[in-house]
Amino acid sequence: MKKLVLTGAAGSLGSRLRAPLAAMCDELVSTDIVDSIDDLGANETYVKADIADMNAVEPLLEGADMVIHFGAVVDEAPFEELLGPNFIGAYNVWEASHRHGVRRVVYASSIHAVGMYPKNEAIGIDVPHRPDTFYGLAKCFAEDLGRMYWEKRGLESVCLRIYSCAPVTNPRAVGSWLSYDDMILLVKRSIETPITGFSIIYGISDNDRAPVDNSGARHLGYRPRDNAEQFAEEIYAKAEPLDPQNPSHYCHGGPFAGIPLGKSAMSLLNLKKDDADS
C-alpha cells in the first residue's frame, strides 16, 4: 500500500491500529479531533480534522489506497449529537473516497446495528438491521451507505460489526469479547483480502459462547485466535443473577438494548477509562 488513512486515530481502538497500519504502507495519515497524538511513526502524519466537515475530510484522502474509518462518537447520545460525526461523517468518508478513487473503506460498524436480536438467536451476517439505539441506527446507515457505494460506484467496503473490544469484565463479554490482537488481525485481513466487494463480518474472538455466526464471511480469511472462556469461571462467580426479561441481559446489544434512546450506555459496561466496547 502506498497510503492508508485512519480516522479516529486517538481513540482506544484507533490508537492500537496505528503501528500495525503504518507497517502495511508507505504513508499513514492519522486523523482525529484532538490537537495532537504522541509517538508518530516514521511514515505517519497526524492531521486534526472533523469528519463532519467535508472540506477537512476530502484533502486527506487524495492518493489514498484505503480508508480505515474508526472515527465516531462511541456511545449512545441524542440524535442531534450523533448526526454530525456518525451520520454525516460516514457520508463524507465514502463520498470523498469515491471522488479520489479510493479502493476500499474498512469501517468500524457495531453489533448495535442488530442489537435488539435476542442472544439465543445465533445471528449471521445477513440478518436484517435491528438497531438498539440512535448509535446503532448510525451503524445501519453507514452499512447501507457502503452497500450502495459498492453497487452504484464500485467502492468496496468491509463493515466490521465489532462486539466487545475491551477487557472481559462482565458475563456478556464471555461470549462477545474481541481481543485487541484479534481486532488488529481482523483489520489487517480486511485490508489484505484481494477482493471484498461489500462485506459484513462480526468483530468477535473465537469464544466458545459466541452468539454470532461469521461463516458467511470466510472469504476475508479472518480466523480469530483468542477465546474468552478462560475468564468465564471467575466472571460468572462474581456476577449477580441475570434477568431473562431484561433486554440488557438477553439482547445482543447488552446495556444499549435496555437504555432509553439518547442516554449513555457505556457507563453501564464497567470499563476502564481508556477501554472501548462496540
UniProtKB/TrEMBL annotation:
Please name the InterPro entries in this protein's record.
Epimerase_deHydtase, NAD(P)-bd_dom_sf
Instruction: Give a Pfam family name.
Output: Epimerase
Oxidoreductase as a keyword of this entry, yes or no, is yes
Q: Does the keyword Transcription apply?
A: no
Q: Which UniProt keywords apply?
A: NAD, Oxidoreductase
* Similarity-based family: Belongs to the NAD(P)-dependent epimerase/dehydratase family.
Protein's UniProt name = NAD-dependent epimerase/dehydratase family protein
